[in-house]
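Quick one: structure for this chain?
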Amino acid sequence: MKQPFSNKSRRPVVIVLLVLVGILLLTAGGTYAYLRSLTDLVEPGEVTGNPSLQESDLIEPAETVDETDSTEAMGEAKNEQGEVEVIDLRNDPDVYNILLIGSDRRGTELNGRSDSMIIFSINKRTKKIHLVSLMRALYVNIPGR
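Got it. Here's what it folds into:
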């Protein structure tokens, strides 16, 4: 009686299956390595710093301002400005706006300036995300500079 599949006829099928599994594993490994290099993950052991360092150790306390002086200054500024138009602000509970600020700080400097600013807007109703980049050349008066 003849067997339907002999060992000789199964050998090429097994070899082809092993080669396909090998190719699949190599492709999966290569894809994983490529994606990991794109995300540039930080390993937990690479994080440096002093965990006992407090914010007050890095940032000097701000100058205290006499409240009466600031109240008078606000009154003077209001008189210089004139009447301010009251406008109705739109508020939509389905829209979240988040301001992302990149810092331009070099070396051991504690103070840095805003390098880039992007408004990140999430609309839950339409399920859309919008990013708006603000120009760096927004000429803003920086007090004390």
